[in-house]
Known about the structure:
By secondary structure, the protein is an alpha+beta fold. It has helices at residues 2-18, 28-34; strands at residues 37-52, 56-72, 81-91, 112-120, 123-126, 132-136. The protein has a single domain (21-136), classed as CATH 2.40.50.
Amino acid sequence: xxxxxxxxxxxxxxxxxxxxxxxxxxxxxxxxxxxxxxxxxxxxxxxxxxxxxxxxxxxxxxxxxxxxxxxxxxxxxxxxxxxxxxxxxxxxxxxxxxxxxxxxxxxxxxxxxxxxxxxxxxxxxxxxxxxxxxxxxxxxxxxxx
Length: 145
């Protein structure tokens, strides 16, 4: 019986070690302290470029956000459009994925978001992975009866 339990534990540990690890979401405090700018606004557009290789389907892009409120920073103004860079990747390879994150949690066009930004390389990066916080989801078309 002891051997069966030991074998089961070893198999469980091996399985858990191969499971795809996500980047842990940051706390509100971590997002606030790690950002240079925080803005609230509406997602106007999402611009993307997609690539695939044998293992990953990768998307990089920017999210255009119309700023309606500023919570931190001095470079943005109400009414500005800020372009927040992001990336995502999804495993398409064989077997279990390696222990890498899948990137940002993305809003949809029309969503109202709070975006935690880091000024970097002449632009802004949304903090990983949850620096794009959906406040209000966009209203979609009504379902037909």
